[in-house]
Amino acid sequence: MRQRKIASDHSTPGRAAGIQSVRRALMILELFNDRRPALSMSEIAELTGLNRATCYRFCQTLLTLGYLEEVDDRKLRPGLKALSLAHSALRSRELPELAMPYLRELRTQINETVNLALLDGNEVVYVARVVSDHLVSLRLYVGSRLPAYASSLGRAILAFLPDDEADALIATSDLERITEKTIIEPRRLKAELLRIRGRGFAVNDQEIAMGLRGVAAPVFSYSQRPIAAVNVSIPRPLKTPTEIEDVLAPAVVETANSISALASQLTIES
After folding, report:
1. Fewer CB within 10 Å: N-end or C-end of the chain?
2. Which regions of the chain does DSSP assign to beta strands (E)?
3. What is the CATH number that goes with domain 93-263?
């Protein structure tokens, strides 16, 4: 993956310097994701653009406060304080909690892992998961992120955004080929979004991981803006060539519609 260095601000005196310290601390915490679960001090310095001494001071402070923790190979990862903060933020959202009965019902109906995700920039973040009994599955959890362009959840949301917004998000995505099946050409992606908009659901055919398929449908707010998506994850061969169209997609769309009815009563907008 191409690494993007995050530029740091020049020091400014007084009040602005205090704000900059908060910004730098958060900048370090925001480096960690599914693809970078742990980082060395030198990697953090390189990615943030901070010099080694400054990076060390910030990391030591975050370690002391419990927002970072050390792992065996001298790398750092988010600590329990950071995880607790993230969990509290997710729990404060009304939609995941209200949607959970519908997600559980869908999980029981089709015996596949069911997910609810929100769009955050050009990524989707998982805010609810009901896991199936399958031994093989992608290692994801509440708080995990995936690129929107390559996931069924992301495409289900992108397809129903205004065209200029969807185009802008695609333009800011790295468009990396995660598997040999990942669509990375902007023209093909836009054609796929049009197809999703026409049929009402998105399909991911092994573009995140080989052997893994996903089917997703959007959740709409009261203003008919897509604010989330529901999907099922299928880590197995399809039972029939039309299983997605005949069985899985209708069930996912029905669940998304039920959650949309709930969301229309909330004042959530993405």
Report:
1. N
2. 68-70, 76-78, 113-120, 123-130, 145-147, 202-205, 213-220, 226-234
3. 3.30.450.40
